[in-house]
Write a structure and sequence with these properties.
Layout: H1 4-11, H2 18-29, H3 36-49, H4 55-71, H5 73-76, H6 80-86, H7 92-105, H8 111-119, H9 127-143, H10 148-160, H11 165-181, H12 186-197, H13 203-216, H14 227-236, H15 239-255, H16 260-270, H17 276-291, H18 294-302, H19 309-321, H20 354-370, E1 383-384, E2 388-389, E3 397-405, E4 409-418, E5 425-433, E6 439-444, E7 446-449, E8 455-462, E9 480-486, E10 489-490, E11 494-497, E12 508-510, E13 520-526, E14 528-531
Parallel strand pairs: 9-13, 10-14
Antiparallel strand pairs: 1-3, 2-3, 3-4, 4-8, 5-7, 5-9, 6-8, 11-14, 12-13
Amino acid sequence: HESPLFDFIESCLRNKHEMVIYEAASAIIHLPNCTARELAPAVSVLQLFCSSPKPALRYAAVRTLNKVAMKHPSAVTACNLDLENLITDSNRSIATLAITTLLKTGSESSVDRLMKQISSFVSEISDEFKVVVVQAISALCQKYPRKHSVMMTFLSNMLRDDGGFEYKRAIVDCIISIVEENPESKEAGLAHLCEFIEDCEHTVLATKILHLLGKEGPRTPVPSKYIRFIFNRVVLENEAVRAAAVSALAKFGAQNENLLPSILVLLQRCMMDTDDEVRDRATFYLNVLQQRQMALNATYIFNGLTVSVPGMEKALHQYTLEPSEKPFDMKSIPLAMAPVFEQKAEITLVATKPEKLAPSRQDIFQEQLAAVPEFMNLGPLFKSSEPVQLTEAETEYFVRCIKHMFTHHIVFQFDCTNTLNDQLLEKVTVQVEPSDSFEVLCCIPAPSLTYNQPGICYTLVRLPDDDSTAGTNPRKERNTFMIKNALPLELLNVWINVEGSRIWFFSRIKCNDSDGIFILVKLITAVEILIL
């Protein structure tokens, strides 16, 4: 920020009035795209305030440093000694902010000590600061995965304490994120949540936990131990929680054949419920499960609505404003960009004709691509290939490709998954450099790739007008593409271009005769890293 205004704010750091100094430091810290060098003077001033005899100044300093640590933890590392001294401050709010700041800037070896210190007085602080503590622990879980057991124990103890809705929701969200991102912590996390819903007065949290149990519980080594906790909700809770419990029970029956007879009995009992929604769900799931067809289970129990909920709400509202004799068409709603649940093949699949299943998959891709503005005018989808894995399973980034063939275009859909829990990939793009008469029209990036959450990139290629270029000879040089992934990764405030030397993926994508064209694709990945 090379401007007279920034120089003026920086000069205010040397003012004789403490309030002016603090406001100048706060203004610098809240500037967008501020570098570590520009932050240094403001952090130094706040560091001096940490040792002030005035509690108001100490509180203001540590609260502001806490905000800095969220985006620039390395800039606050120099203040760690001063923050350590504030842990024993008589003002519990100051002590809490000091510890949560240290949790963001400290090393992995200091986690155990800090957790013990904060547990000694966490019951004495207000819910507002308890939420700050939970948020710091949540960030720490992503930073140090090996400390999950320590933090899970701490969170479970906090969950048993008295507190308001926001405080409990923060803890539940943190435990859920740990369960979803770390398989080794799944059973411990689910056990703590099951214990919590036994005496939970918040309907929103109870239904959220029941949804998680239905999603993760059936895939645990002993899924039957969760049935009692879920069915207790049907007996003891209100209508909304009972309905969520019925849906969770159905997911257990759909994925575990040995539990299916017991689940059917429980669903039959639920059909006698006093609430219409609970009875309707129980009746519906009972009839689906009695068919013992994996395809039906996947469609009506696991995947649920694959459409965009905001889009459906808007379309339904528009339909009510303009009465029509035609029934409402669900195909007019864009699909949600979410991964489809991968069903475990545990229940015998009743033979179904592939001719009937293939069009539904084709329709899904057609609507999904039509929802992208760049693909609206490509015409009807001719065919979509099966997914092709481009990377090895043990690599840092998992990439697979699906080819969508149109009359004059081909759309490469790249499903990318980041398997590194300490990295956040942003603006993930796949660029295709064609040879000869092939032309790349656009590349559509995935906004971000968080740990273990799939993202989708698209590359649109125009096919040559000359049919002779669309032969089936794999030796033709003009049918070769090079695909380059640019994966921006936020680490520090300095851009480092690795020039492809960090990770290299070599793979081939073949469009065979059934696709209508042969194309050889070579994937070369280059990583651009933004160091935190």
